[in-house]
């Protein structure tokens, strides 16, 4: 176990620092744009640009890593992100924000591919669950706590952007100091949406709707908080609540999904997210700030966990040799939703006021629950025969939901283990992305 930790401590430390900067940026960007008088609709377009950039980065990353290797890829990409963050201090138009946010989407997608591949390659079968648990808990806590740093500076000045840039630059130090050999370069992944939809439509639609809903809520939540009368610190705390709820609920939901048809869990999570969206609407109308905070935690515990269950559901169905392509396809479906969702969520806020964001969330989540319910009625499936496969109880859902591949011959076991690793990686990437 100690030798395995020695192999991944550098990438875990680097990613934790990177996600600390990323989490602060998630709270800072929309508040800065709003303070500069940029409309909610324009903020939604900026968020959609991130989705476009992230999708592009997912396709570009494997070839880039193959060309320069993991260490050089991380170092160059982190340096690019740091420069982009500093350039944001000079962004005073919607077009500038769109371009910069799109470029950060490309670079962050490539960085997450580096970190996912590194961890997956270095986590051995005997300690994989615990290794992944440590990695995800560290990065999740950083992403959860860092938005609270918004209280340490003024969003109208450049200090907080400099802090984000500093954190991302510091992430270079563990990578530069590593003495371990970098993993082998990744191979490309085929995207087959039509084929996967014919096999596991619930997973494809689920991943897409997750992007439609989670994308705008995470991106616009600080603006929502300020618009309903919360202070900037309280608005940033809503992001903390989202991530805290997700972290708390992931393991119980993973345990539950391994003991039933996973579609029931997806439908229940979607219906719950729709209901909690209505609670947020009521609490915001009453000005009950404490109830709003707890409601956001509940929403995060439901909505932010759906994607991992969708990945596990699809991987239960497809053959072991198709899992890598399946995960890539679901990631593409999610990224498509993230591109479209902020436009729809921002439009709802423009038309209906701040509450429009969660009216949109309630309707979209309810639509997913109804779709899954119809699929359950039409197609009966046996409960998953997976498990947590070496996952420690402290792990998050993106690790806990990794299904055990049903393989027969011994020669297929290596393929199943590799597929399980990539399943975890994609789920992690989505849960740690805005």
Describe this structure in words.
Helix content is 77%, strand content 0%. It is mainly α and 434 residues long. About 9% of the residues have low confidence. It has one domain: Growth Hormone, Chain: A. The protein has 17 helices and no strands. Helix 2 packs antiparallel against helix 14 and helix 9 runs parallel beside helix 14.
Task: Please supply descriptive tags for the structure shown above.
434 residues, mainly alpha, Growth Hormone, Chain: A
Q: In total, how many domains does the architecture comprise?
A: 1
- Parts with pLDDT < 50 across at least 5 consecutive residues: 386-424
Rg from Cα = 20 Å
Question: What is the name of the CATH architecture?
Answer: Up-down Bundle
- Number of strand segments: 0
Structural class: mainly alpha
The largest sheet, given as strand count, sense and whether it forms a barrel, is: none
CATH topology: Growth Hormone, Chain: A
Elements, N to C (H/E): HHHHHHHHHHHHHHHHH
Helix residue percentage: over 70%
The fraction of residues in strands falls at under 5%
Distance separating the two termini: 32 Å
CATH homologous superfamily caption = MFS general substrate transporter like domains
Q: What is the count of helical runs?
A: 17
Overall residue-averaged pLDDT value: 82
């Amino acid at each position: 176990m100690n030798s395995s930790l020695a192999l991944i401590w550098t990438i875990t430390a680097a990613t934790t620092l990177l996600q600390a900067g990323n989490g602060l940026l998630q709270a800072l960007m929309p508040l800065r744009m709003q303070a500069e008088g940029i409309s909610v609709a324009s903020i939604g377009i900026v968020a959609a640009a991130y989705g476009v950039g992230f999708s592009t980065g997912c396709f570009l990353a494997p070839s880039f890593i193959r060309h320069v290797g993991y260490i050089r890829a991380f170092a160059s990409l982190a340096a690019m992100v740091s420069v982009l963050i500093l350039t944001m201090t000079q962004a005073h138009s919607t077009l500038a924000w769109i371009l910069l946010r799109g470029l950060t989407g490309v670079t962050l997608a490539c960085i997450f591919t580096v970190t996912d591949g590194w961890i997956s390659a270095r986590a051995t079968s005997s300690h994989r669950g615990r290794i992944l648990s440590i990695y995800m808990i560290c990065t999740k806590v950083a992403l959860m706590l860092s938005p609270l740093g918004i209280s340490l500076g003024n969003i109208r000045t450049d200090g907080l952007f400099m802090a984000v840039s500093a954190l991302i630059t510091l992430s270079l130090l563990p990578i530069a100091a590593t003495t371990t050999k970098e993993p082998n370069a990744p191979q490309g992944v085929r995207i087959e949406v039509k084929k996967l939809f014919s096999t596991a439509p619930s997973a494809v639609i689920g991943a897409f709707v997750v992007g439609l809903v989670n994308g705008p809520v995470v991106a616009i939540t600080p603006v929502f908080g300020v618009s309903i009368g919360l202070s900037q610190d309280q608005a940033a705390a809503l992001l903390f609540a989202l991530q805290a709820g997700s972290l708390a609920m992931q393991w119980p939901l993973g345990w539950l999904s391994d003991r039933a048809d996973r579609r029931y869990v997806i439908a229940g999570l979607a219906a719950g997210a729709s209901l909690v969206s209505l609670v947020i609407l009521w609490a915001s109308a009453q000005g009950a700030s404490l109830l709003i905070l707890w409601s956001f935690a509940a929403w995060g515990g439901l909505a932010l966990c759906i994607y991992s269950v969708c990945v596990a559901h699809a991987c239960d169905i497809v053959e072991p040799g198709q899992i890598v392509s399946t995960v890539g396809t679901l990631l593409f479906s999610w990224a498509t939703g993230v591109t479209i969702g902020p436009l729809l969520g921002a439009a709802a806020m423009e038309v209906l006021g701040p509450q429009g964001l969660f009216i949109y969330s309630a309707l979209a989540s309810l639509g997913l629950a109804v779709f899954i319910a119809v699929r359950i009625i039409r197609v009966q499936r046996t409960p998953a025969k997976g498990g947590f496969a070496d996952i420690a109880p402290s792990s998050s859902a993106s690790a806990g939901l990794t299904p055990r591949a049903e393989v027969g011959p011994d020669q297929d076991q290596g393929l199943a283990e590799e597929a399980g690793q990539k399943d975890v990686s994609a789920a992690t990437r989505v849960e740690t992305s805005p």
